[in-house]
Specification:
By secondary structure, the protein is an alpha+beta fold. The chain has helices at residues 50-62, 115-128; strands spanning 8-9, 13-17, 23-27, 30-35, 39-42, 67-70, 85-88, 91-94, 99-102. It has 2 helices and 9 strands. A 6-stranded antiparallel beta sheet has the order 1-2-3-4-5-9, covered by helices on one side. A 3-stranded antiparallel beta sheet has the order 6-7-8. The longest helix is centred in the C-terminal third of the chain and has 14 residues, at 115-128.
């Protein structure tokens, strides 16, 4: 499945990039995959079909999202033949509509300095004070 912006491909599949930062893969009227830099949201709209699963896996492949949906599917309507499983970052969990997969963990903006950070600061201070070629301080 080739996916491109805001066009319909393969029986009712459309891609939309929203101003909110989410890219959405829409199959008929259901947003089966929505993602941004931080998360992926999966939804089959209650239709556990071969095509819904194919659109999810196609989006994962096309956009390198790193998840895979597996499990039994119905060829028609809402017949669930068994639970779907989602594999992401080496873990497998049962599929649930509107489930969120975390792509990036938000980092602490002010982490405590590490020993390497402290050494780098001392080196910058030493260099900014000026040194001669021998490594001794130059006169100010």
């Amino acid at each position: 499945m080739a996916i491109r912006d805001d066009r319909v491909y393969k029986t009712g599949t459309k891609i939309n990039k929203g101003e909110d930062g989410y890219t959405r893969v829409i199959y008929h009227d259901t947003v089966v995959v929505a993602f941004n830099d931080n998360e992926i949201i999966l939804n089959n709209g209650g239709y556990q079909t071969v095509t819904s699963k194919a659109r999810m896996n196609g989006a994962s492949n096309q956009f390198d999202l790193g998840f895979r949906v597996d499990g039994s599917t119905s060829t028609y309507k809402r017949e669930a033949l068994g639970p779907w499983k989602v594999t992401f970052k080496g873990k497998t969990v049962e599929f649930a509509n509107n489930m969120k997969l975390v792509r990036k963990v938000k980092r602490n903006r002010n982490p405590k300095p590490t020993l390497a950070d402290k050494s780098e600061v001392k080196m910058r201070e030493w260099v900014s004070q000026g040194t001669g070629e021998s490594g001794k301080r130059s006169a100010h």
